[in-house]
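Issue: copy button drops trailing tokens. Both records pasted manually instead:
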Amino acid sequence: MAEPRPRQRKFAPRSRQGCLICRTRRKRCDALRPECQNCTRLNLKCEWQAPRQLIAESSTSVAAQLTRTPSVTALTARPPIDSWDTLRSDENAGGENLLQYYVEAYVPSVSVATTPSSFYMHLYIPMAYESEGMLDAILALSSAQLARRIADPERAHHLRDLSSKHQAKCHTYIQDRISPSGEALRDCYQVIGMTLLLVGLEALKGTKSANWLSQLHCVRTMLNTIHLSKTCTDHGTVDSLRRHFTYHNAMASLMARVTKKDAPLPMDREIIPTFQPGIPLTIDPLMGISYQLCTLISRIQYVTAPQPAFPLLAQAAFDLIEREITEWKYESPLASTNIDLPVALDLISLAEAYRLAALIQLYRSSDKHKPLVPSCASRTMEFISRIPPGSTAESSLLYPIFLAGAELDDEAAIARCFKRLNEIQARNRYENVGMVQEVLQEVWRPALNGGNKRDWEDVLKEWGWSLITC
């Protein structure tokens, strides 16, 4: 008997005469102007495409159009931050301005590249139109970041309060849909996506507790349930959620030796990413071309236990993951027609910086390999320096710059590292960047006074912090 074909999501045909919102959502539009019924019902700003103007074009403009190619950098253009100061952010605005901010400012600020496959856009925006919980998660993120960008203290305070209200609604929504064991009772995909966005909110707010690790543990449980049940009918959605989780899970592995948390799942039950050689290159908004590498980083926590019960097996696992990280190969983004050359080169530098940072994380746990760490740190900083300030790839530099920066001894190199962290924070306004700066300052302080630098793990244990390097 033939296996049933996976159910595919059905969309209404796009209306060429409909408003831009309905066309984006792939919903039928009644084309009523100035406000269609769909936008009126959802309290959204109904927008329409401007009428086309037929004009005679010069030979120069025609030639320019023929040679023009689609680019990622063109998609990332956004208005100056000051222009968002005039947006209404009160609840009476229906959230449409904060949703606009999410699309035009928040997503570009945290993405290494803007591509059609970005789960921030192609997955979470449609979910927000159908789920109040996902909309609350997006509004909580948008208002929290906007509060850190505007100059008016009173308005910033209001936006923080608004973010907290939306975050509380998210928690209520999730609690109503998961069991005490962490399994989703309904709306599984929305719960997973919301939880991952809330982990990003914890990083933005500079949370020092380990709550985000518990959130990831819950997501891992739900994704593994989907994987083991083999009942998934929407593989595209699950793959996007798995990608988002993989990035945060890789960053969580850095805290495995620092924070007491729930025991991780055995490696044989860890989520296996769906990857097949020959599939088209997918530029991830957070990992760029480093998706497979981040799955390897997630596994480092399993081979770096201080006192393994089976030393020989632990050493064999260590050697295996070292070889896999060293030999990891990625598909070059230079072949992509949707990526400009500067963006592609930055993504390659980011991937190599991640590879070396992963080796630093691995080698720190082995006395035999610790002498290799300074060289890896120096090479990591070299690749980081190839990514210019303001590049979209800069948004995911925190993991490699933290691991490499913690190994620096030279005062000039330390100053350059601290300067780069300031530039990253100016881009995304995430308060976890400031936390990284505080930890590194404590690590460097003895070395700058003629002593030996401290170990960042000891600093975090002493302070009781759980650092989010997302």
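Record 2 (pasted manually too):
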Amino acid sequence: MSPSHHLYVLDDRTYQGKINMLVHVVRQKYGKSSILVDHFYPEPKITFKASSFCSGKDHSFVEAGAFSYTRRGIQRHLSPDIFRPLEDRYSNFNGRELLVKANNNAPFHGLKKLESGAFIPDSGIDVSVVNALSETLNFTWRVETPRDGKWGGPLPDGTVSGMIGEIARREGHFAICEITITGLRETVVDFSSPYYFESLIIVTLAPPEKNRAFAIFSPFTMQVWLCIAVSTLLIGPVLRLETIVMKSYMEERNGDEKFDYSTNNFSFNAFRSLVVQSNLLQAKYWPHRFIFIFWYLFCFYISALYSGTLTAVLVTPTFEKPIDYLTDIPEAVKSQGYSLGVIGDSAFEELFKSAKEGIYEEIWTLFNHKERSKSFFSYPDQGFDQLVKGKFIFVNSQMGSKIRAIRKGLNKFHFSRQTFYPQGYGIACNSGSPFRMKFNDM
């Protein structure tokens, strides 16, 4: 038998401790097969397993079919169950090598570049997923990056970019690299069941500490300060007017006025009370005393609130208002000079691009569409490089952003309180891929 022939070695079976089938060989040549049998003891039906065999390489057994024994001898053909269900046929790839498309995208799919320019898997969630699949389904794999370096998807001109495009054109067996399952992408590729779920988050530089040059005014808002100023200015004239009324009423029963009840004196003593100094004004009339009681209470509460809040402000550093919600982005871009970025040709860009109304549509108009390279990046690392340069907002996946922030210094970045757009990541397979269901079963 020449070396070019394919051998299929079948397992031995025993019957009551005796060899039932010593050896069975299926010889395949010119597209035809035959069964050779030696030393056979009768049994109603024998099921055997076969595997491809190459000299110097390991082989494994897979179920191939069954044949029957009769008094006339062995039927030298396989029964119809050799045509196994398609899902069973891909339970074992028999060491076949699959081509996987991925980007260098830690913590999901880290790649290591060799001197030859090729990439090998390094570490990450997706690498662990593929390794588990390859071990279970018995295949090997190698990885290639997409030519345009993008995640990709269908474009308006009818082409398909990135990893999705190369899988759609069957330039690889499947792609796995934090790929969001979307309805648009499912028009050109088939996705496995999602293996990871997360949401998007807004990343900015950590807000700077507020300037304390005007910290003495920070305990109250501008509206409160305005109310205090108006109350202080009005208390003098109000007391003076009340004095005039009382003097006209009490003038016949009282002699010369011994106290200075001018507007200036009232205003000055009201201010003294506000800044926690003694009051030198004597209240002769009971309306004065009534008004002064409420004024003293007002001054006490204002003084207590101010001193307590000021102490807290000086002890605890305060920071500028961070960007915590999607609704904060338009104001930050329009009023504070921020720029906005996201991964280009991705599900993240498509989220804003396809919006017809609401906050997503409003945010889409804030990207730099004239110079796309300033708002739409090929890799998340480019977005983080832009973040450290200044006022920049980067919309990205939650876990990937936090891992990159840890590498660069977690305290340098701020993550929004709001997360949005829950999404699932799946394995993108060729349309009609026969082994996609096996991936789902894993």
